[in-house]
Design brief:
globular, 5-stranded mixed sheet, about 425 residues, 4-stranded mixed sheet, single chain
Length: about 425
């Protein structure tokens, strides 16, 4: 099969389009659009930090604009079309992908090779009484918060981190990873646990799939979401690092015409890129020049940029979270949202939301060296920030940190007009 020839700009635009980040936001109330986005992304990373909002909410906002958060709650806890599990991190995943996650469930702590996993396996085996009490409590009383279980550990969990001595937390995490229990809901910010057999809908197929079928399905999902990708990009997306035999699967998918080789301008001959056959019409449209830009802000854990090496490779954008970096050593800030402008990542915004006063404070706005300097760009960045403020319910926007000189005249009036 002759490779499709793409320029880097085409590759970036294809990736952005496949991530539902092209063009104007959909109209409010377009309920089917959320499910379309979720079925493309396959996972939304969960993160406890909510300096402005939880990451999974920001990921949806970047793609949908203002949306009904209750719709997501219904998909999770009422319709059960989504559930929480480990993808490339703790995530919201699709219930229809349950069979793809079963491999991790079945294999967790079985024949472990790593020292860390063996330590967990040994601790788990030493605490069968705690395990049985947790399962019995759920079986008898239904959904429980973490503090609803008695600590009956025979051996305390020891670690150098925050989890040391938190025996119930460790047991719940193991049983969750093994698929015995699931998050059945939320009580405020706290998870409610229940037996998986009571959480999973009856329509879920629990039949174990052959390993090759799992890798094939997951690889196809990943490539559709990524737009254009290498083997290493696929390995880092969705069920990260759980693609045994991926090279052989890709070769077969190429032979079957499902994966189409790409010749990316400027790429090394050793870099093999692919586009999914389902994305060929979109690829042709983009190569033909039919593409509409959007300017928005991205969660630090957004699916577009969750693989940092790929982000640097395609966008020449070095993005690292500074949450755990000492304040004196941070370049940009504690919580930073990259700015997507068309097909480029042109800068970063460091926001902080005060929910009591309804104030969104910008601790800094930073432009990349090659970022456009014109008025239109600055106004677009300003509109993206005000759109975020509207989504968060912030009544005003303030700034207390640096703002690029080339953007000040157009950006600051845009922010001041909010409210």
């Amino acid at each position: 099969m002759r490779p499709i020839e793409l320029r880097p700009q085409h590759a970036r635009r294809l990736a952005i389009s496949c991530q539902h980040l092209e063009g104007p936001w959909p109209s409010a109330g377009d309920h089917g659009r959320m499910w379309e986005v979720l079925r493309t992304l396959r996972c939304l990373q969960l993160d406890p930090i909510d300096v402005v909002a939880h990451s999974h909410l920001l990921v949806l906002w970047s793609r949908l604009g203002i949306y009904d958060r209750q719709e997501l709650e219904n998909l999770l806890w009422k319709e059960r079309r989504l559930f929480e599990y480990w993808a490339h991190a703790a995530s919201i995943v699709l219930t229809e992908d349950y069979q793809l996650h079963q491999v991790m469930m079945r294999g967790y702590l079985v024949d472990e090779q790593s020292v860390t996993r063996q330590k967990i396996a040994d601790w788990f085996q030493a605490n069968t009484a705690l395990r049985d009490s947790v399962l019995e409590r759920l079986r008898d009383t239904g959904p429980q918060r973490t503090d609803g279980f008695d600590d009956r550990a025979a051996v305390a969990w020891k670690s150098g981190g925050w989890s040391s001595g938190r025996n119930v937390d460790r047991m719940l995490d193991i049983l969750w990873t093994q698929g015995a229990i699931m998050v059945s809901g939320r009580s405020g910010k706290r998870r409610l646990w229940d037996l998986s057999e009571r959480c999973l809908p009856t329509w879920v197929d629990r039949t174990p799939l052959p390993e090759t079928d799992i890798v094939t399905r997951a690889a196809e999902h990943s490539l559709r979401a990524l737009g254009v990708a290498r083997k290493k990009d696929i390995e880092q997306y969705f069920i990260r690092s759980r693609y045994p035999g991926l090279a052989d699967v890709i070769a077969r998918l190429v032979d079957e015409g499902r994966f189409v080789p790409v010749a990316l301008e400027g790429a090394s001959a050793r870099e093999r890129w692919y586009v999914h056959a389902d994305r060929l019409p979109l690829t042709e449209r983009i190569v033909g020049g039919d593409w509409t830009p959007r300017t928005t802000l991205l969660s630090p854990f957004d699916n577009l940029i969750c693989h940092r090496e790929r982000t640097a490779r395609l966008w020449d954008f070095d993005f690292r979270s500074e949450i755990y970096v000492p304040k004196s050593k941070r370049r940009y800030g504690y919580y930073v949202l990259p700015i997507l402008h068309g097909d480029a990542l042109i800068g970063r915004v460091a926001p902080r939301l005060d929910r009591t006063s309804g104030t969104l404070t910008l601790e800094g706005v930073f432009a990349e060296p090659a970022a456009p300097t014109g008025k239109a760009t600055a106004e677009a960045v300003g509109k993206a920030v005000t759109a975020l403020a509207t989504f968060l319910g912030a009544r005003r926007i303030e700034h207390e940190g640096p703002v690029p000189a080339q953007w000040c005249d157009a950006l600051l009036p845009e922010l001041a007009a909010h409210g």
